[in-house]
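Good day; I would like, with your permission, to put a structural problem before you. What I wish to show you is a protein chain and, alongside it, a tokenised description of its three-dimensional fold. Please examine both parts with care and let me know of anything in them that strikes you as inconsistent. Thank you for your consideration; the sequence and its tokens are set out here:

***
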Amino acid sequence: MKNESLIFGIRAVIEAISSEKSIDKLFVQKGLQGDLSRELMFLVRNRGISFSYVPVEKLNKLTRKNHQGVVAYISPIEFHDLENLVIQITESGETPLFLILDQLSDVRNFGAIIRTAECTGVHGIIIQKKGGAPVNADTIKTSAGAVFKIPICKVDHIKDAMFYLQGSGIQVIAATEKASDTIYNKDLTIPTAIIMGSEGKGISNSVLKLADHQAKLPMHGDIGSLNVSVACGVFLYEAIRQRL
């Protein structure tokens, strides 16, 4: 990760959080004490920022400077508000096409998906604040800079985002091998959000149940699944084909 995205020191991290900077990763020394550290942890928990308690040796590897027991990485991009983005796209007269990533963890897959999404005219990518791949230097490189060109929304819970999209007249289609129907039989010419799952577990069952439709890709080889970024590309280009 680029050095300029790393900050350290309790006061510096407090100021970054208070300034609404998006914290990708936060490492806190085990057993950290003091009024200032308590102020930091109150702010971290209040804002729902994920963090890890680590030994001081871990922090010393991240920076040789006086970190005071706290090191954080700031996201290199500004995240968008989902509700504002949906309203903006709807009022523009375009047919919304969103992408939801449920706990995708590999930064290179994330970057590849962002690049394909930008090329296929996706209006926004929705990720969850906790558990997903961060936007870091590897993501930026793999996306070929597309991460700066497409809106990315961070939400507290994927399910709440789905409810909002559905309430806004946008159908939600889950990409899953468990589906009985293929993507080629789904109408993607209407407002649509496509959910892609994590590399290992796919879409979580609780999220899967809330989708309006489930769809799969036909598989004719011995291997039963595609890389998630490849599968995502096939889904998105089917949307383009239908919308041409």
Observations:
- The chain has two domains: 3-74, 82-243.
